[in-house]
């Protein structure tokens, strides 16, 4: 089904990818960011997600939300995360509910579960174990998603995104990479899956070396097409005892 989708954080890396890729699936997009977005065929709202008046305007007529806006850094201070990721995410969920948008796709992160040792990991659904205040802020967003699904019947997917990039930038990302094409396929699946209630879904491509299970995503209709292995030549092997390899969140556990 074609949705009228608000994309928050649409000027960012993932936002630009979705603004290019989602319309081919029939959706109408409205883009929201605190920085201006030019040269786009889509409607744009410039403003801050912590401002309820901005969100009320941005949510008018919207049936689904893809919430990307926030600070994406594992080294960000609690004070910055408190405003953008915690207050901002609450305001986006609340504005979506008030506007009657029934579906929300939330950009969580592998860092919400980053302290899980990979050797002990239940591949599909490891427990919350943040590796940073950033990871804690993402765990909060996941909890909000579950709450809005249970309390208000919204359909919510939390994407535990690995490493989004045009190509894998590091040895670790041969396991954690999600390609731009697969990101569009994943969000498209979450926007249209008829049986979605609440799900935490790994945001990862079909990497030969992936650590994370695709079964939850596949049950929603996500069929990744890319594999980081195509870029593996020349990358050094990771030492299994190196935190970069041994923990879901990689080196962030020792920062
Ligand atoms: N890129 C990755 O590999 C990755 C991995 C895991 C999770 N994520 C999550 O995905 C989301 C998008 O990531 P990205 O890589 O595109 O980040 P990005 O920094 O490129 O984009 C984020 C966008 O959000 C906007 N923004 C920030 N605070 C805002 C506010 N208060 N109001 C309105 N707009 C605001 C910024 O202007 C920016 O355009 C983030 O929430 C990030 O935590 C990304």
TrEMBL record:
Annotated keywords: NAD, Oxidoreductase
SUPFAM superfamilies, A to Z: NAD(P)-binding Rossmann-fold domains (SSF51735)
InterPro entries from the UniProt entry: Epimerase_deHydtase, NAD(P)-bd_dom_sf
Span of domain NAD-dependent epimerase/dehydratase: 5-164
Any one Gene Ontology molecular-function term assigned to this protein's record: oxidoreductase activity
Presence of the UniProt keyword NAD in the record: yes
Pfam families: Epimerase
Keyword Metal-binding applies: no
Similarity remark: Belongs to the NAD(P)-dependent epimerase/dehydratase family.
PANTHER family, A to Z: 4-EPIMERASE, PUTATIVE (AFU_ORTHOLOGUE AFUA_7G00360)-RELATED, NUCLEOSIDE-DIPHOSPHATE-SUGAR EPIMERASE
Record's protein name: NAD(P)-dependent oxidoreductase
């Amino acid at each position: 089904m074609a949705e009228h989708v608000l994309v928050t954080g649409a000027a960012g890396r993932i936002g630009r990818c979705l603004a290019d890729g989602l319309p081919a699936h029939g959706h109408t997009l409205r883009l929201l960011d605190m920085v201006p977005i030019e040269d786009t065929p889509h409607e744009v709202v410039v403003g801050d997600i912590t401002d309820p008046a901005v969100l009320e305007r941005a949510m008018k007529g919207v049936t689904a939300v893809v919430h990307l806006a926030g600070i994406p850094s594992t080294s960000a201070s609690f004070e910055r995360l408190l405003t953008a990721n915690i207050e901002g995410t609450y305001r986006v969920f609340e504005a979506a509910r008030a506007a009657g948008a029934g579906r929300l796709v939330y950009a969580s992160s592998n860092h919400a579960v980053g302290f899980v040792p990979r050797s002990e990991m239940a591949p599909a659904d490891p427990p919350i174990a943040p590796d940073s205040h950033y990871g804690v802020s993402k765990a909060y967003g996941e909890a909000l998603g579950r709450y809005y699904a249970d309390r208000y019947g919204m359909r919510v997917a939390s994407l535990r995104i690995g490493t989004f990039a045009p190509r894998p930038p590091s040895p670790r990302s041969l396991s954690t990479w999600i390609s731009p094409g697969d990101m569009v396929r994943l969000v498209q699946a979450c926007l249209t899956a008829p049986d979605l209630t609440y799900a935490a879904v790994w945001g990862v491509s079909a990497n030969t070396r992936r650590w994370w299970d695709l079964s939850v995503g596949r049950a929603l209709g996500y069929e990744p097409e890319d594999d980081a292995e195509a870029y593996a030549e020349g990358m050094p092997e990771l030492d299994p005892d190196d935190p970069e390899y041994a923990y879901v969140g990689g080196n962030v556990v020792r920062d």
